[in-house]
Amino acid sequence: MATGLTARDYYVSPDGSDNNVGSKQKPFASLARARDAIREAKIAGHESVNVILADGIYLLTGSFVLEAQDSGSKKAPIVYRAQNEGKAVVTGATRLADLKWERHKDGILKARLPDGIVQSLKFDALAVGDRKLHMARFPNYTGKGNFDGVTSLDEVNKRARNYKRPTTGYLHALHRSRWGSVHYRITGTDEKGLKLEGGWQQNRHRQLNNKNVMIENIFEELDDAGEWFLDRETGILYVYPEPGMDLSREPLYVTNVKDLIVFEGSAANPVSYVNIEGIEFRHAHRVVLEPEENWEPLNRGDWSIVRSGAVMMTGTEHCTIKNCFFNATGGNGVFFNNYNRHSAVRDCRFEKLGDSAVAFVGNHACTRSNPVGYENSIAYSRQDLTPGPKGNDFPKDCTMDGCLVFAIGRIGKQTAGCFISMAQNITVSHNTIYHVPRSGITVNDGCWGGHIIEHNDVFDTVIETGDHGPFNSWGRDRYWLTRHHSGKGYRQDTVYEGETVPQIEAQKRSRLDCVTPIVIRNNRWMHDTESHSWGIDLDDGSSNYHVYNNLCLGCSVKLREGFYRRVENNIFIGGRAIQQHVPFDYNMDYICRNIVVPVKPETMPWRNDKKKILDAEKIDNNLYWSAEQYRNPDLEHKQLKEFQAAGIDVHSISADPKFIDPKNYDLRVADDSPALKLGFKNFTMDQFGVRKPEFKRIAAEAHKKYQKFKPEKIWGSSVSTDRDSKVMVYTFLGARVKDLTREEEKSVAGVGELTGVYVVEAPRNSAAARAGIVAGDAILAVNGRKVDNVADLLRSIKRAKGKTVELHVVGAKDRKIKLDIDLFGGLKPTLHILAASGIEGGLVVCIGCDDPQLLVEIGKAGPYLVQGLDTDAGKVKRQGRL
User: Fold this and answer.
1) 832 DSSP 8-state letter
2) Which CATH number fits the domain 7-92, given the four candidates 3.30.1910, 2.60.40, 3.60.20, 3.30.110?
3) What are the boundaries of each domain within the chain?
4) DSSP 689
5) Phi-psi sector, 853: left (phi>0), alpha (psi -120 to 50), beta
6) Mean pLDDT for each consecutive 10-residue tract of the chain (882 residues)?
């Protein structure tokens, strides 16, 4: 926060009053009143201003709007922030109070709503306290699979015969080709079943997938705990409460507002230097059932989109959304709409949103000769050949950094953790994106390039849709004539609208829109080990990409149709190898110095015309190996030999890359790796994803639960590594601890170097847990003295003078913990037995206990019963094999 000029603070509290003066003692009640007070004081841009929100829930009756007159300045920004991060909740809900509940039947309660409520509220979601309920639906909510439970359209049509009022309902379905989802209002029934209106959420064909549908908001389907239904004709709300839920005592919230905070500026009059910090956002209503006129198809990409977000940013400069939590909002999280410059989303958490987390979308009027709709093209003779955009009404030089994105797309499936269309120079860095229905990051078009996609950790994606990867892009820009690749022989001209178009002309125009390269570097993309997932999916004409230093586990890269893709110095493990799909003539792709280890020994698909592959700038100096070759090193790589005979990959080799520690995701290669002789260079393996300690801890747990890549399917159990496999796991104050030796441990704890003591587990009732130590913490010092490992920790405590010791502990928080020295039981050098708990090749011991002073050494020849331990020397005395 800038402090160059005098700062002024305004306070807001749910217990305040807008008739107050906005002081700490007499706070305002609303954000709008604080904004108006700043306007009245005429200090915006002249004094730094903090609008401080006390803990509590802030109910919006409409969008909170910030205009150009509400701008700060570089030296005097305006900050709206929570007094305590995450404790101020801004919600687009209305609270229902004083309802009189009575029994309906079968566990269902009902209450009549006050007059006017049904007509005045959007009311598409209901929450009881912090628990969001589900509209009455079929199938019932399972929390698993597509739409958390699906059935067939035939089954729904059968059930619809018993619906008295089917027109209250909505039908949700996967797209027929599983590219996303389509959503419909039910307008009635006929002899075939439901009559539907909708499907406009897609920019290509709108057919639904008959086997993947879900129907909701039907009274007859109110049959499961946690469901609700509003009868709009009678004004009666029906709720089937969950066990232990008391509707008469807990607050009920219904959604009403779509865009909670709106920045409403323009290029001529932007909103500048206004920051939103530490706020939780809830209860923005859904967008999937917005009317057709609100859905905008985006160029020739697959998407249509509603320009909406819990935080909606139009016409901003140097504005930042930071440390905020977007919690189960119904639509998009943050939407950068049209003109935005140097604005950012940083260190925010997005969880269980209805649609995408962050979107950057410009104005189609800025494009040149770019048609809308997949099947549409513009003849080459009628194209504007001026490179780049017209005007400036699009996001440029904006950032999404350090964000944690989980389980978005709960209702809309054509969604992404980050979505970019008609924008320029967008940086997407250090985000962790996982458990999402479609891709983690999507670039809709080449307009206008310059994006930097770096240091992201993306896994467990494409869990409900198909035919794409963790990263997905299209390049259906002005040069791209729809389907002009189909059935076309080598150097055969394309004919469109009576024009003959040589393929070389497409190459010449391929960078008119993507005027500067899109860079994808230093990311980790993960998928199922044996998946067909493309990983980095450069689809349909994606051109002018530079892809390097990426670690792809369970996936690789797909290059379809476009031009000028540089793919170099990446590691592709599992799944399929590099894919060139229907390549263009004159494609000028560059694929060099990559390490490729698929499940089976293969390189690129042979269905392509080899002459088109030879039109690449260069394909060479790659190292190919496979899971099968790890098991049988003498297995010949026949496909590589065939490629080389055709003049492709001439200097590439088939050899073991000699990774340092592949089972623990350290895929750097050893000094004697043959990859280094080909020009491959190691890159860092510990900079993927979020950096905020709290987020790192969540991400580490998420990898355990959701990550589908299985190293043993590639390397089995016999692959040796350069690291000592012996692991010492100790019990310390009831917690399990070890030397901090791995990059992932450093990452989870948020420390800067591989030194200290890592807490593997801290059971709830352990002395360590009672002292505030939790799993994922690192103990770095005792009484101010740095400790390098567990032995060092024990020595430091043993030598401590006085009745207490102070531990320096780092994790979600950096703190000092004082403990009574008696807790450590004198730290005798002899130890007692502790079960191995499945840990192999290590030494499992217990520190500071009064039971028999023994330990067990687990090794290849063990286990052995061991008695006595010289802590300083680290030596043990074997007493015999168990």
Assistant:
1) B
2) 3.30.1910
3) 7-92, 95-255, 361-677, 727-881
4) S
5) beta
6) 66 98 98 98 97 98 97 98 98 95 96 90 91 96 95 97 96 94 96 94 90 98 98 96 94 96 98 98 95 96 96 98 97 98 98 98 98 92 97 98 98 97 98 97 98 98 92 95 70 86 93 98 91 84 98 94 97 90 92 94 68 93 95 89 92 97 94 98 97 97 94 69 51 85 62 79 86 88 90 83 87 83 57 33 39 36 41 41 36
Q: At residue 226, what is the residue type?
A: G
Tell how strand 427-429 and strand 399-401 pair up.
parallel
What is the reported pLDDT for 717?
55
Backbone angles phi, psi at 352, to 5 degrees: 60, 40
Tokens standing for 560? Answer: 């379809």
H helix or E strand, kind and range, residue 171: strand 170-175
CA distances from 223 to 194, 228, 241 (A): 21, 9, 11
Measured between alpha carbons, how far is 497 from 484 in angstroms, rounded to an integer?
A: 12
Tell me: the pLDDT tens digits for 670-693? 999 999 999 999 999 999 999 999
What is the Cα–Cα distance from 391 to 366, expressed in whole angstroms?
A: 6
Q: What is residue 488's DSSP assignment? A: P
Extract the tokens encoding 327.
Answer: 């919690």
Decide if 652 contacts 622 (C-beta within 8 A). Answer: yes
Is the whole model's pTM more than 0.85, yes or no? no
Find how far residue 753's CA is from the centre of its chain: 26
Measured at the CA of 360, the angle between CA 355 and CA 362, to 5 degrees, comes to 120
Q: Which CATH class is domain 727-881?
A: mainly beta
- Best CA proximity match to 659, nearest among 638, 677, 676, 679: 676
| Residue type at 586 in one-letter notation | Y
Q: Are 213 and 173 in contact (CB under 8 A)?
A: yes
3-state secondary structure of 673: coil
Query: What spatial distance separates the first Cα and last Cα of the chain, rounded to whole Å?
Result: 62
Question: Which residues, 6 or more positions from 606, have their beta carbon under 8 angstroms from its beta carbon?
Answer: 639, 642
**Do residues 441 and 323 touch, judged by C-beta distance below 8 A?**
no
